[in-house]
Request: fold
Amino acid sequence: MNEQNEIQVIDPGDNKLSPATGGFISPALDINAALQLYNAQRQFISAVLIKDTDYGSAGGAGKDSLYKPGAEKLCRFFGLFPKFTAIKEIEDFTGKEHDGEPFFFYRFECTLYRIKDGLSVGSADGSANSWEIKYRYRWLSEDQAIVAGYDPATLVKKPGKLFEFGFAIDRAETTGKYGKPPEYWQNFKNEIAAHRAVVATRTTRNGSSAGWEIDSTMYRIPNPDICDQANTILKMAQKRAFIAATLIVCNASDYFTQDMEDFTHQATEDYEPRPAATVNSGSINSPVAEAKEIKVANRTLGEYSPAELLELSENPKAAARLREAAALIYNSISKPPSEPEQPTLTI
Reply:
């Protein structure tokens, strides 16, 4: 092989470049060393990483999602440290360039380096912006929306839950930081008296505290404090880049997928849940037909090919519609025909 066609590979033992032969890239490790590394990584993940702290459920994705603490531990195990480079930043605090609505966008590249010698071993990008639904909007009860100056009839709504600590309901404060309208507190008391409220707990800085959870229709309003979250959005972009780089460099995709906790609490796009199709044992097309009629980007789902649907699933807004369609079909086969339900879309 002439010198121009030689393929250069990095020997991880001494960092020297060595030529591969036969026109192929040479393995960086022999089989025994690769097995030892694989077993060491598997044992580390099993023995050191903690479920729900370092990783957790990815919502049916088949693999757990890697959280930032877990990514940090993997990097420490492999002797790596990150550096972030800003690729693109948009900070429009006044909304001058975005029709009066403040807008923030950040894209970062995360590069991982070996601690012992500073060698760059891999990188990945990540982005976040203030028009992601979980940042752009807030969900309020009807009473809260009215107090905020909105007409609930003009707002996007969804079924939801309200939670309040027991001591808060007893105090029923109507002024100050935690003040709510009197009707709000009375609604909680009525639901508790009617045995429709459910006992629930929430974690606080002082531990877990008990409270009550009730069903409620929630109304969507623009986030009035979006400028306060500029730094949060910046950190989210860095976090996404860091986890993506860790998965690639540490060969951790066998065990984990991208951190889905970023998207767990996102609100839905502009839609109102459709009533579930009445399941008729003599008909096989009611729920499926209704699912196919759900529109995404001016086309019904039935007009998309399987490949296009897969591509759509990568878009958070379109994915909300796909989950709505799945809920329709799931409810039709998992609920008794005599008890049709409105599909609940969990985000």
